[in-house]
Write a structure and sequence with these properties.
Blueprint (H helix, E strand, L loop, with lengths): L3 E4 L4 H12 L7 E5 L6 H5 L3 E4 L8 H5 L4 E4 L8 H15 L3 E7 L11 H13 L2 E7 L4 H4 L2 H7 L1 E4 L11 H13 L6 E4 L7 H12 L4 E4 L2 H10 L4 H17 L8 H6 L6 H10 L1
Parallel strand pairs: 1-2, 1-4, 2-3, 4-5, 5-6, 6-8, 7-9
Helix pairs in contact: 1-8, 4-5, 9-13, 10-11
């Protein structure tokens, strides 16, 4: 029986990957939820999933977490600037534990994109390639949830704010990306890299129009200079460094299509069209 470990299994993406694996017939007992706080994984434990402590900031916990694991999904952590050290510790532990295959959730065109957010992803890909471990890079595009999570604020202000201009964004749901990760883990010979994005890219103005239609009120898209966006985000409590990363991403969406994607790797992997924008907005509105 193949044992599959998923890091960050209590997070937004990780828990969906576990769901997708089980829905595809993987026995819960052959899944390892490698999590920083095992006490938060009681629901997974109740389903029969193995729960093991795996704190990337405490590398001594990783060898035990990955013991006996055949395939590992390394979900990128949410700490730009420090996550390369975290990812490197996980890769080294996976190699020591004899893990046979590692899939890593990266970003679209990590090896060539100019966006600041990609720097840690590119370096992690290089570290994984240098490790000698069999691997696959799951280069995820933007999540719809990056925008739909803003709906309470957008509803009150009447506007999305950004610096993306008329740049197109090939977003998909977390569930789409999670299903793709599950499929990649179950393939006998996965590709080294998948460029993953939604089937129908949209602009921020198109997103605002869809939200307007579903809320029954006018929601605008207000485009502002990147410097102003950093100021606004920082004023709203976003750490200035991360605000600068978000603004930089918008600039590259506008200038070179950094989060557009002409390929069909995501829909090919999951065996169906990716979730349409209207469906993603409807789900967020309902929630």
């Amino acid at each position: 029986m193949t044992t599959i470990a998923v890091t960050g299994a209590t997070g937004h993406l990780g828990r969906l990957v576990v769901d997708a694996l089980i829905s595809r017939g993987v026995e819960p007992g052959s899944i390892v939820a490698a999590v920083r706080s095992p006490e938060k994984a009681a629901g997974l434990l109740a389903r029969g999933v193995q729960v093991r402590e795996a704190d990337f900031d405490r590398p001594e916990t990783l060898a035990g977490a990955f013991a006996g694991v055949d395939k590992l999904l390394l979900i990128s952590t949410s700490s730009p600037g420090s996550r390369l050290a975290q990812h490197t510790a996980a890769i080294e532990a996976a190699k020591t534990a004899g893990v046979g295959f590692v899939a890593y959730t990266s970003i679209l065109r990590a090896d060539t994109t100019p966006v600041l957010l990609a720097a840690d992803h590119k370096a992690t890909e290089e570290a994984l390639a240098a490790s000698g471990l069999a691997h696959s890079f799951l280069r995820n595009g933007w999540y719809y949830e990056n925008y739909t999570a803003q709906l309470p604020t957008v509803k009150s202000t009447g506007s999305f704010l950004g610096s993306a201009g008329e740049g197109r964004i090939a977003a998909a749901t977390r569930a789409d990306y999670a299903e793709a990760a599950a499929v990649a883990l179950l393939l006998e010979n996965p590709r080294t890299a998948y460029e993953l994005g939604g089937d129908t890219p949209f602009t921020m103005a198109e997103l605002a129009a869809e939200v307007s239609a579903q809320l029954g009120t006018t929601i605008a898209y207000t485009d502002v200079p990147a410097e102003k966006l950093v100021e606004i985000l920082s004023g709203a409590g976003v750490p200035e460094g991360f605000a600068a990363i978000l603004a930089d991403t918008d600039v590259h969406i506008r200038e070179n299509g950094a989060l557009d994607n002409a390929g069909s790797d995501l829909s090919d992997l999951i065996g169906r069209p990716t979730t349409p924008l209207a469906d993603a907005v409807a789900e967020a509105v309902k929630a």
